[in-house]
């Protein structure tokens, strides 16, 4: 039992606690405060009956109201889907080339496409779409198969050099290691370097130009400008998917490259394919 | 040591029956009540023409569209610092008034005080003044009591519904919402808000009253740190009033004092709970003796000050945590002093620091010396500084705004001709009620070109829809082998200009080259 002392000034009993000489008065609480406390206890019991509360062995009690955060989220998603239903219908019906003219629909398509991209495409192309070695950068103005809206949409839908889709974009560079000798390969590499750089061996490049004309220009063009109809890259510009130094180029010529992209038609919803095409088109290189 | 039996842990509420009083402060409080309630109930109905695309309600908190309209001012969510600034000013203003004039906020302007005052007015109108109400309180439940009580509650409920109803009008178009409320077409949240505010107004104004101030509000506890001996507050001139009572003989003093205590205890059973608060630096016993020839104080112990008190305390016990300084006891006491032919001001607005001088018969310090002190001047300066800064910020803000977030994934993009491009996500805001065509450009020491997504090299103008924010992807390009394309970082400033009005806004940012 604490020592109940009386405060000299007020005549009220103290709790017996003292901090630095200051004592606490034992002033009674108002009665309604007590009722409020009881009310919160009753409320708490009611709440735990109505809502999920008590932990059991394989989960918590579900509550009489059947409320759950999961159902709430599903409801939210449904509400948003309902809100966007008209936009989705419009997106499915629109001519993709004309999409950028419809500001609202375009904004919706790009936002939706961004989400699709981050979930499905960023694993290879990077979350910022900057690509990596062997995976094209989608921000620049250089396209292997074309950068118009329709080209991008086709690539997304059917993919590149895959076996799943018969309509996939397809082409194959021969491995020149079995066709040309080492000297010829070194010469043609020097020629390719001469197309975009000033640091090369002029005599060797001269020889390489002949090798190039005989073996490469059919696909890559006389001046190395490439051919989008068969995915042959422009080798005269500043963008290199597999590297631009002599070693990387020698490897490319000797063993060839075979970049594959899966088809997304059938895996993504039609609206998602259109949206992600619009998104990629909006990143800076769209034509 | 005397062992006392432990008292009850819980005390029932002691009902308070404030008596009607008239006087300067009462009339002043009626005026403040009329003004504050008038502002509260009528403001949502004021109209303000902002043009065709914007609401015409003068004061509107549009949560759905994230806008706050206040007459000619429109605040967007990113300008919330205006609201923060106003809150800081309100806080500093409260410090200022409390350090100068004590709890004037509590006594005059606090919604709890104003609505309680209104509820007591209704109560007095229906059930009569103090004595009638005390009788009614003790009377058994009969037809008479039931009729008065129900009438009073219905009127209170009417006020409470109007209070909750006025609140929701601040959040959407008032006339439209009023129609919807009547036809039951309004959003459920509107009805719920009205119901909650009706309940709190009815309960806090009708039944909780002083309990809110004493037990629920933190301000009475904080104010002790805001007040000092120079603060003007409602107090009792005990040097003039004591010994209270009708007798004038020294030998009867003790008996009179005891009788007074007994009377207090009888008239007001809870009075013992509100003992006097001791002065911080000296006990009451240490006060010098009253230097008076006769031994009778001016206080005739009529209990008028106690009877009018809305929180049910005796101001003669000294300053108390419960006192909201409503000043009604001043009016009550002045009335009595006039009747018995004594000067007014036995209970008055006083500063504790004047007590010694007054006790010695000296005049107190003039009012302005209590109010103009370094502390209050400092509060005023801080308050004014924030106010001026807010007004300045309000006038320099542009109708067109932008924020720039440079895309750093990747830091730069190489184009096929070897040029280097940086990408910026630019958020453009048009805070006007009409569409605006804006030009986007850059200022930099280096040769950089700007293009916009979707426009190629066609131009750099964008149409901003009225009252909206849009996101525009902006490309800044450095030609191959230029300084900016090879350097690590180049500073630049992105600007937008309204081609119609010439309004301009800009943000500094940087350009990344290849040397990283």
Describe the model.
The complex is a heterodimer of chains A (287) and B (516). Chain A is elongated. Chain A contains 10 helices and 5 strands, in the order βββαββααααααααα. By secondary structure, chain A is mostly helical. In chain A, 46% of the residues lie in helices and 6% in strands. In chain A, the strands form 2 sheets. Chain A has a two-stranded antiparallel ribbon with strand order 1-2. Chain B is built from 18 helices and 15 strands. In chain B, strands 7, 8, 9, 11 and 13 form a 5-stranded antiparallel beta sheet that branches. A 4-stranded antiparallel beta sheet of chain B has the order 12-10-14-15, with no helix packed on it. Chain B has a 3-stranded antiparallel beta sheet with strand order 2-3-4, with no helix packed on it. The interface between A and B is large, with 35 and 38 residues. Chain A: C-type cytochrome. Part of the cbb3-type cytochrome c oxidase complex. Chain A: Keywords: Cell inner membrane, Cell membrane, Electron transport, Heme, Hydrogen ion transport, Ion transport, Iron, Membrane, Metal-binding, Oxidoreductase, Repeat, Respiratory chain, Transmembrane, Transmembrane helix, Transport.
In short:
The complex is a heterodimer of chains A (287) and B (516). Chain A is mainly alpha-helical.
Give the key terms:
heterodimer, A: 287 residues, mainly alpha, Cytochrome Bc1 Complex, Chain D, domain 2, two-stranded antiparallel sheet, two-stranded antiparallel ribbon, 5 strands, 6% strand, elongated, B: 516 residues, Immunoglobulin-like, 3 domains, four-stranded antiparallel sheet, 18 helices
Q: What is the count of β-strands of chain A?
A: 5
Query: DSSP helix count of chain B?
Result: 18
Which radius of gyration of chain B do the C-alpha atoms yield? 33 Å
- Kindly report the oligomeric state of this protein: heterodimer
Question: What is the H-and-E element order of chain A?
Answer: EEEHEEHHHHHHHHH
Report the sheet-strand fraction of chain A.
5-15%
What's the shape of chain A? elongated
Low-confidence stretches of chain A: none
Strand order in the largest sheet of chain A: 1-2
Largest sheet of chain B: 5 strands, antiparallel
